[in-house]
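Entry 12.
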Amino acid sequence: MKEKNEPKKPRKHNIDNLTRKVYFYYLKDCQNRPIITFCLIKVQRSDLNLRPFYTRGVAICSRADNPCKKTGRKIAYERAMYALETNGSACPMNREEAIQVWLEDVPLEARGLWSMPILKADAYPGLNGFEKQLVEEKMEEKNHEHENNVA
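Predicted 3D structure (tokens):
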């Protein structure tokens, strides 16, 4: 049983006055396997009324590996969190195989929507059109759910 004076455990994704919302999306190969996983974290200071900012993490599946959504999400999330915790960008995409996966394994129509990520851990990235749409759609869903709960 909890003591009365014992502090409450922080909720997941809410640490040090930062509220975080996590989004994942994938680029798939021609066999519909998730070979590139993106993690986008929307960060908002809960004690100040400032505009939110974002961090992004990217995981690229090696050709020697079997694509696994769970593993890709874990790696991409860790990289996005690294960018948040260090307030910086790191992990340049300079491994030849990662560049080949992007250029040869991601279908051309998908590559056309995204520019090749230069960094696998990026603080304050400019959101691409898809990411802006993803965040807006999630906000609309949340607002719609709230309206239904109030009615």
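Annotation: DSSP finds four helices and six strands in the chain. Confidence is low (pLDDT under 50) at residues 1-14, 144-151.
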